[in-house]
Amino acid sequence: MTGPEYPAAVPPTPPALPPVTPAPTGSSAEGTMAADAAKVQSMMGTMSGADTLLYGGAALLLILGEFIFGVLLSGGTITIVGVLAGEVLLFTWFLHPAKSPVMAFPVATAAAVVGALVVAIVIFEIGDFIEVLKNFGLLTSGGLIPLLYRLCRWAGAVLMALGLFAFMTPSKS
Q1: How far apart are CA 59 and CA 75, in angstroms?
Q2: 140 and 147 Cβ atoms separated by less than 8 Å
Q3: Which residue among 18, 22, 58, 111 is buried most deeply as judged by most CB within 10 Å?
Q4: DSSP readout, 123-143?
Q5: CB 61 within 8 Å of CB 160
């Protein structure tokens, strides 16, 4: 005799899942997507990729680099590069006559001024980068805040240079 025989354990049945409804098709889903795309387009306006790089780079350099890491957290002052980044924001705004209430500059003049400002910023930041390469201890000796300050400035200058390159390169279409 081997012992009493027990019936095999029956696993509990899982709860019933609700019926799967197919994703909506037709005009309602496509209309919602089109409406969302129109909202995003209206918020972005007529900003091209070059404008986005110019605005983003200048804002990164000015707001994060200069204001937050340079002035608020380090106790420094706004540098000439920060002033130039603010002017890039202003003159990039002048590139779009529909957005700009003041039409003191023709679009070609505003584009030339933006180009000159970005080149000046890039030259300043290349000089700063070379100084750090010569004395690498400058980058890490001050702690995290000066490191983030320089990284934001360098990244902003690179973004603005890419935006200027994209703006000045003729389209192939």
Answers
A1: 20
A2: yes
A3: 58
A4: HHHHHHHHHHHHSTHHHHHT-
A5: yes
Residue 29 lies in a domain: no
Rounded to two decimals, the pTM is 0.67
How far apart CA 33 and CA 28 sit, in angstroms, is 9
What pLDDT, in 10s, does the model give residues 75-98?
888 899 999 999 998 888 877 766
Asked whether residue 62 is domain-assigned, the answer is: yes
Q: Residue 136: what pLDDT?
A: 81
- Do the domain assignments include residue 111? yes
- Amino acid 101: pLDDT: 61
1 in any annotated domain: no
DSSP-based three-state secondary structure for 62: helix
**pLDDT tens per residue, range 26-55:** 556 566 666 666 655 554 566 678 888 888
Encoded tokens for 169: 């390169």
By 3-state DSSP, what share of the chain in percent is helix, strand and coil, each rounded to 5?
65, 0, 35
Residue-range definition of the domain harbouring residue 67: 49-168
Reference 160, options 118, 128, 104; nearest CA is 118
Count the domains in the chain. Answer: 1
